[in-house]
Amino acid sequence: MIRCKPLLGTFVEISTDDGELSLRAIEMAFAAIEQVQSLMGFHDPESELSQINAISHLEPIRIHSWTAEVLAIAKEIHIESQGIFNCGIGHRLVEAGLLPRYVNLHDHSFGGIEDLRFIEPNLVQSKLPLCLDLGGIAKGYAVDKAVEVLFAHDIQSGSVNAGGDMRVFGNLTKDIKIRNPSLPHELIQIGKMKVGAIATSSLYFSKRDADAKSYMVNPLNHEYIEFSESYSVIANECVYADALTKVVSISGNTQHPCLSHFSAQAIKIPHAITL
Predict the structure, then answer these.
(1) For a Cys-Cys bond, which of 3, 127, 157, 231 suits 172, CB 3.0-4.6 Å?
(2) SS3 for 71?
(3) Among residues 44, 33, 2, 248, which one has the least CA distance to residue 141?
């Protein structure tokens, strides 16, 4: 059975081998994805993420365990990547007009994910004003939560694909196809996956004017970066695959040391590839 819904700024497809019996499980998996979107969406001024950005530097904020888990993973990857991954660059994307202006950029000097501390497992506070954007990690986490729901409903095999952030489980084998960076409407098959996750970062579908800023920002120097190739990461869980694509695409290093720490591998598809 295959079902598809517009979520997370893309189309999410859930596929299972369990026929009509899996319909309820799939609907619950979509509900989990919707909850991640509701908790961690930058575009929603009422989300927990928006509340963290608005007042965590003024007072402690009690958050959902899922939000806490994503923030904890983001802090871990920030450390292991030596700062290359940092979701505290949302203000740079706001400045570029790529995210909605829910914060006053002129009143604050913003900190990063390293300035957010856990007072309790679900209670956080920041030393500095924050403008966190979890767009580089939450989509992968949502895929993982959907897979967890399918597991809980005894779905034996299937896949969840959120615009290229994909996780496969059980006996299902999926062809892994990545867009050709020079011709994005063409797909390159790089292999098959039975159990695991893959995510890709690229700029070939970024819709912007010629003088508009890139949505990829290097947290170490806050510069907007451009690249014409694509970078994919294979990992056990999609949250890590999603976040680590930012590490390899920003650094340009498919052998970055933090990949082995998270049992992940990276693939670079050059812009000049021919089929």
Answers:
(1) 157
(2) helix
(3) 33
State the DSSP code for 76: H
Q: Is the pLDDT of residue 208 over 50?
A: no
Cβ within 8 Å of residue 183, ≥6 positions away: none
* Alpha carbon distance 174, 191 (integer Å): 9
Residue reference for tokens 């954007």 = 133
| CB 85 within 8 Å of CB 200 | no
Q: Name the residue among 117, 66, 73, 37 with its Cα closest to residue 264.
A: 73
Phi, psi of 220 (to 5 degrees): -75, -30
> Amino acid identity of 195?
V
Q: Which residue has the tokens 């498919």?
A: 254
pLDDT digits (tens, 9 = 90+) for 164-191: 899 999 988 888 888 888 888 888 898 9
Q: Contact at 8 Å (CB) between 77 and 69?
A: no
From first CA to last CA, the distance across the chain in angstroms is: 32
Residue pair 90/53 in contact (Cβ under 8 Å)? The answer is yes
